[in-house]
Amino acid sequence: MRDAPSEALILYSYWRSSAAYRVRIGLNLKGLPYRTVAVHLLKDGGQQHAEDYRQMNPQQLVPTLQHGQRHLTQSLAILEYLDDVWPTPALLPATARERQRVRALAQLVACDIHPLNNLRVLQYFEHEWHLPAPEREQWVKHWIMDGFAACEALLAGHPATGDFCEGNAPGFADCCLVPQVYNARRFGVDMAAYPTLAHIEANCLALPAFDAARPENQPDAT
Fold first, then answer.
1. Which of 88, 97, 182, 207 has its CA at 20 to 30 Å from residue 24's CA atom?
2. For residues 196 and 85, what is the distance between their CA atoms, to the nearest angstrom?
3. Which residue in 169, 159, 150, 27 sits closest to 97, CA to CA?
4. What confidence score (pLDDT) does residue 222 get?
5. Taking the CA of residue 111 as centre, how many other CA atoms within 13 Å lie in the half-sphere pointing to its CB?
6. Distance of alpha carbon 213 from its chain centroid, rounded?
7. Is the dihedral of CA 207, 211, 212, 213 positive or negative?
8. How many CB atoms sit inside 10 A of residue 175's CB?
9. What long-range pairs does 121-130 form, CB within 8 A, spacing at least 24?
10. Are 30 and 81 in contact (CB under 8 A)?
11. 8 A C-beta contact, residue 141 and residue 187
12. pLDDT at residue number 6
């Protein structure tokens, strides 16, 4: 592990948040020590809505990464910040073309799949539209499978795909893919339809950095 940062890193996180999961992976891959502060998204009406947390993150979402006196939001922006401040090991590859591919794969998950099945969307369906649980779950599965079909096509057989999304070292796109596969399994998506994604996930979870970031290994896991 690298030397501890001169200013403490504190991750405001919920164990089952896939966005927080991405950042945990990135911190672990960098070997950066951090302290976790749990923000339970369901207890007390959602602790992310408490006034003190809202002051820190006006979107009332997790994660927030505190670095010294700075409060950093949005998981992809946090991962790029980690790469800027602690360049090695790199999460993003060296060339502009490679970085574009990796960012596109990450955004496919973080911008196109995840927002459609995030907790606040499902809560809106439940409380405002009174949509029953089976229909909500079908919504989630549809958009995961739609996105995974595209992701599988982009990764399978591509010359840049190796043991991981980009070559044979884990990085930025893997930080996004693995949490989304975790969500897919939660909602009963059959990963046999996406063999490349399943293979990359298995390679990632064999690494200590990914294993330590698993939701079930978090101090607030219930």
1. 97
2. 32
3. 159
4. 85
5. 9
6. 10
7. positive
8. 31
9. none
10. no
11. yes
12. 74
Report angle CA 77, 83, 89 to the nearest 5 degrees.
145
Query: What is the rounded distance in angstroms from the CA atom of residue 117 to the CA atom of residue 122?
Result: 7
Distance between CA atoms of residues 156 and 200, nearest Å: 11
Spatial separation of the C-alpha atoms in residues 60 and 75, rounded to whole Å: 13
Look-up of token digits 């996406």: 194
User: β-strands 70-73, 64-67: how paired?
Assistant: antiparallel
Tokens 């043991």 — which residue? 163
For 151, counting Cβ atoms within 10 Å of its Cβ (0-12 exposed, 13-18 middle, 19+ buried), the class is buried
Residue 28: name the closest of 175, 185, 161, 219 by CA. 175
Edge-first strand listing for the sheet containing 64-67? 35-38, 9-13, 64-67, 70-73
Give the amino acid at 157.
G
Residue by residue, pLDDT tens for the chain (222 residues) are: 466 677 899 999 999 999 999 999 999 999 999 999 999 999 999 999 999 999 999 999 999 999 999 999 999 999 999 999 999 999 999 999 999 999 999 999 999 999 999 999 999 999 999 999 999 999 999 999 999 999 999 999 999 999 999 999 999 999 999 999 999 999 999 999 999 999 999 999 999 999 999 999 999 998
